[in-house]
Amino acid sequence: MSHTPPPDHPPQDHETLAIEAAAFRRLIAHLMHERSDVQNIDLMILAGFCRNCLADWYREAADARGIAMSKDEAREAVYGMPFAQWKAQHQKDATPEQLAAFEAAQKQHG
């Protein structure tokens, strides 16, 4: 899935960046610790993004600042552990119903 970057915004002051960073950290904590039961496919169906999308956006932001980062490094930064470990601990195989809902959502928003 391709990720569209947000429109360019004017430079922000330090406080705004700190607030945004804190909100991002809170979102990550919520998705990783408090709601690890919510599957990525369900996030994709309902919200159009998942934890892997966040990792992709994180890597793209690093790249935009000239910081090389692999997909695995970005996922570990978001998941707080190697992705394979998080997946083994928390992710279940998608059900046929989830796959059908995902396909329908993709067609709707494609």
From TrEMBL:
Short name of one Pfam family: DUF1244
Q: InterPro entries this protein is in?
A: SMc04008-like_domain, SMc04008-like_sf
The SMc04008-like domain extends over: 38-103
This protein's name: SMc04008-like domain-containing protein
